[in-house]
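Hey L., structure's done. Input below.
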Amino acid sequence: MKPSPSQPLAGILEPVFAIRTEEDLGIGDTEGVRQMIDWCHRHRLNILQILPINELGNDNSPYNALSSLALEPSTLALSPRHLPDLTPETFLRLAPPDRVAGLRRGPVNYPEVRALKHRLLEAAFAHFAAQHLDPPDERGRQFHAFAAENRAWLDDYALFRALVEENGNTPAWDRWPPEHHSPAAARDWLRSLPRERRQELARRQLFFQYVQWLAFTQWQALKACGAARRVYLMGDIPFGVGRYSADVWANRDLFNLDWSGGAPPETTFKADPFTVKWGQNWGIPNYRWEELRRRQFGWWRTRVGNLQKLFHLYRIDHVLGFFRIYSFPWTPDRNAEFLPLTEAEAAARTGGRLPGFKPFPDDTPEHKAFNQAQGEEILRVVLAGSGETTVVAEDLGVVPDYVPPTLLKLGIPGFRIPMFFREPDGAYADPKRYPRLSLVQPATHDHPPLAAAWDGLWQAINAGTEADASRRELRQIMAFAGLRDIEPPREFAGQLHEAYSRAVLQSASWLAVFQITDLFAMTARFNTPGTVAQTNWTYRLPHTVRELEEDSVRRQQAETFSRLARESGRGC
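Output:
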């Protein structure tokens, strides 16, 4: 089941954590995803896109994961119905209804949710080890087969996770004892321990492998479920990996820790003064592409190979980084130190280094040619490793002129966000002239939903701040929606909401994906870039999947969207 550009498709984006069901444990899980696949099928939508599902770090950001290969345990459905290693009695003891009911209300409470799911997984593993591993029965043999198939990354990951526990649950490996600083050193250390201690740590590694076996099993079943219902499951792969990740710990020579990747200064996200002055410092270490090339990009092949098992399509976040990455000679924890400095003062503290593009800025034909060739080479590796899984490139930001033709040459769809594609006079570009090989989306998870952005324009008008520019933007949005002769309404709803959705769905783009908040004209957002806030990555829809059908307003909005998609020739 591989989508073809000959058939335009429509779908929705909803982060897993945001999905709400009657039985979840305070966060969306694989059962919620299955219900959303069914919901898409009922409404004849063919894409369900999610954000990255790799194991999260302490900041809960799916783009700063603890591992780019392991899956996030909190996405697991952990009722006895979904996990045979959990008895009903154990589940009720560890997850009493009154406690779970409190977790289900409001946004995600990551500390509480993780603690609860960890206890359930520990109990399930104890039962599994006792019943299926010694000697291994059919279920035990399935686990061992998974461990053997994924040994290239799973053994190092499991050792890293065990060492995180050993070191006070911090993944900051550079603060660990020297004997834990690398896989080789850690294994030497293990061999020096008494037998009982070695066995204890071996069991901890086995536990983390067991959790990954469960996760891959449940997610692979979801891919099959989507195929059966003709709903393509679309994943997301961040360009970079977290500095304190299992990947960096186990493959130090593949990463340049002297530079932190990010994005250049721009005016779209004005969340904080540092972003405006210096840019976004994501803290991800730069790749040593020459070393990856020497190893035939094996790490990247493994990474995209894992995605191929789980998804029909996936989005590469910040594909521009394959060509060149804006880099900082300091880590984000020093941003406040550099905020008030001039370039000269900053250079004095960094040995003459300043933020800029690596390997080269696009300042000469030779540098542009080098960057273009590097990006194309890496993307060819990614395509080869992805097999039948369709690759989509998020190519937003400061886009070099050689990127769009390179993506076209390789048959990779790029992104079209209407508000970013304008005519010289500021008017929105005609969506019917978007390239066929593209994915159109009104807004990503990093943007305010359409209704919130619309409300912000009216607030600016009412406050008298940038009122003329805001009125002009309202008119441009109305024109994009085909409503030039109508006064802009106060709310992004009704006729405007439907007309805007129609304009996007009737674009020439092969793929059209709406955030679920934009489908329902909600104002809540999933993330605000450049900020560290408890509201990031925690928002959950107020309705369960079942309630989306039972609520007459939400059902009508979904049916309208489905009708517009069909009228636009989308669906199969």
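The mean pLDDT is 95. The radius of gyration is 24 Å.

-- N.
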